[in-house]
Fold these 2 entries.
Entry 1:
Amino acid sequence: MSAQIEATLHDFPSLFSLKGKIAVVTGGSRGLGLHAASAFMQAGCSKVFISSRKAAACEEACKVLNALPNLSPGATAIPVPADSATMDGVRSLLAQVKQHTDAVDILFANAGATWGEAFDTHPDQAFAKVMDLNVKAVFNTIREFAPLLQKRASLEDPSRVLITSSVAGLGVGTLGKQGTYGYSASKAAVLHLGRNLALELGPRGITVNSICPGFFPSKMANGLLAMSGGADKIAKANPMRRLGRPEDIAGAVVYLTSRAGSHVNGEAIAIDGGALWSRGEMLVEEQSKL
Ligand SMILES: NC(=O)c1ccc[n+]([C@@H]2O[C@H](COP(=O)([O-])OP(=O)(O)OC[C@H]3O[C@@H](n4cnc5c(N)ncnc54)[C@H](OP(=O)(O)O)[C@@H]3O)[C@@H](O)[C@H]2O)c1
């Protein structure tokens, strides 16, 4: 191959563009889902559907998104409140989206819940709650939206499913008084669900990938951050000496949903500054012995 051919990239300026794409974001009213929705709106999406249980929260998020500077022309956020944890809720979400479009290009299955409780008293109901929302609901949402995702999908320009897992699904979660046993297991399960669906849906022109965030300040994470010694302590222990930022989510979701990420399928990207691999004090001790 000649240098001329090897150096030529097809239309680089559009590589990270989501121009004209239609996205659905569950758990989009705040936190990581809202960071991603903002990125979708600014990267070119024409419609971004914002879903969570509370209608007022979805409307408020859409108001903020629709007033963002730097929106791509015509970009609109549309509230579609629904409880993803129930089959009725998933069907209601689909019906609401169908009132506006018969095609969806990006599904961000991000809604999730956690539960912290000691091992000895960890309740059955806690396990059921996190498995239902974090795993079963993700499967149900992807299955129900598959026909809309297939509508404009092609192997050349695939539709995208993104799942929010967690580094708690790659390593272990929190142990002790606030043990997140069910949560950690659910996030590992949904990662593997993603790999299965990547092979099932790839040939239909739909990629399936997961993001595995570390600690990002959010309503869900703030309580655990406080109980683990505070945001500053957790940030200092991170190899990058900080917690996650909205732009860290924005960059990852735009990469995975744009043409730049179209050959990534069945993957999981950790967004945690490398904290998963750090061995804390053990490493310091070993180094001091050298
Ligand atoms: N923040 C972190 O450090 C972190 C790290 C790793 C993974 N994650 C994952 O990231 C995802 C988002 O978490 P977050 O930190 O952004 O938390 P968050 O700020 O508490 O947001 C959770 C979102 O999910 C919605 N939601 C909760 N239950 C729902 C249900 N049954 N149906 C539909 N929507 C529901 C909430 O809105 P409503 O209350 O209105 O329903 C809200 O929009 C979760 O899957 C979480 O496990 C977060």
Entry 2:
Amino acid sequence: MTDETPVVDVFRAELPDAVLTPGDDGYDDATSPHNSSFAQTPGVVVRPRTADDVARAVQLAAQYERPVLVQGSGHGAAEPVHDTVVLIDTSQLNTVAIDTAAHTATVGAGVPWSAVNAAAEPHGLLGPSGTSPTVAVAGYTFGGGVGWFVRKHGMAAAMLRSVEYVDATGRLRRASEDASEPVDREALWAFRGGAPVGVATSLEIGLIRVPELWTGYLLWPADALSAVAAAWSEATADIAEDVTSDLALLQLPPEGPFPEHLRGTAVVHLSYASPEGPAHLQRLRAAVVGAAEPAVDTTGPGDASALAAIHLDPPVAVPARGIGRWLNRPSAETIVEMFTAARVGTPGGMNMIELRHTDSRASFPDGMQTRMPAPFLLHAVAAAPDDDGRRRADTALGKVLAAARDADTGRSAPSFCEGTLGADRAFSADDMARVRAVKDSLDPARLFRFQRDPVRTANTL
Ligand SMILES: Cc1cc2nc3c(=O)[nH]c(=O)nc-3n(C[C@H](O)[C@H](O)[C@H](O)COP(=O)(O)OP(=O)(O)OC[C@H]3O[C@@H](n4cnc5c(N)ncnc54)[C@H](O)[C@@H]3O)c2cc1C
């Protein structure tokens, strides 16, 4: 018997069939997050099937003063998880209901975007999903959510209608604009792109009508970077808002559906999507193809599965370390300088650096991060499995940021700061005071340990 045993027994007795401890079937799965940077060895994993299970787990954690960590996909995992922690694994909160008239999806908190899009697509709808199909709606939306239709429709957080959640006393609540208690209205404001303020059990989110999806990606050898960057930079200055595109320099895997001469090398990668057919894509395509002949071009009519594959995100767990930074329009020279500083594919360099075109005039409701912070988003990521690797990655990431200085807004994008608990500067002092007040009401003892929670890391602009 250890000190841990009685608490574990209480959890098992109260939540039969939902509790996993080391050695149980499913424990390794629940503690193997998509970002594999840090070991997870929680004393108790709770895999709830209902909101009531979540509430009971939180009540017990509060009673025994155990910190609570919530995990869906684990894409956002960013710190070691020790044996005192109660880890709530939301993967079994997996229901999806589409309201075809209201254009909304109501989803369990563990649902990945692939499941939402599979259910919505037959109705001509898609979610405001991002590049990876395995990222969950919850963590993505609570961090803002920059997806493939972001230019025309804005951030996912702006489409978040309501959240059912559990506060730190274990009470079930509903955050919505018309909630009767002011704190639940404030909770929705925080969940919208800023910080979770309780354990979400389900979310209601808007869907996008997609009349004619066109999508694809182009690849060039790395030496085409200057020509492609100049053409893309010029084209994005006035391209129609139904086109969202992303320019990257990335290391291709040694195998895969790529020409042999590109496998295992650094390549220039341009991916894009238009929900309204090819018309506006043609101008962008003409510019970049005219600048340098691509070695690969997959452009064409697409579906949700094609959309989920164009960014070439790794399908397996990676110990990722990254930065995300909002930029003003960079010159073509700055793009080349940033991408060169990333030293993609070289020892100690990045696996990938990308620049997303996010310029958007979409309307947005009140929320901590519902308005697009800037017209471009810089994201760079390295593989860093240990402290040494993380130090090296941070040095390299610092050089990328230095190269971005002419366009840097100084504002971080925490969702893209993989494998780190926070981001230096993301929110204004007023927003930070407002979210602290919400947390003071709902979780005064800070029972919940959310990753990249601005209040945990005090990342004021
Ligand atoms: C390969 C890859 C591609 C990505 N692409 C994009 C992209 O295109 N656009 C974009 O905006 N972001 C993108 N991201 C970033 C991603 O949105 C964040 O990593 C996000 O935190 C992942 O959410 P999750 O729920 O899947 O992960 P998890 O690790 O399960 O959760 C991350 C955090 O979200 C919060 N959270 C999750 N579930 C709950 C809950 N039920 N209640 C309260 N809080 C909760 C917690 O703070 C948790 O620590 C990408 C990340 C990766 C690794």
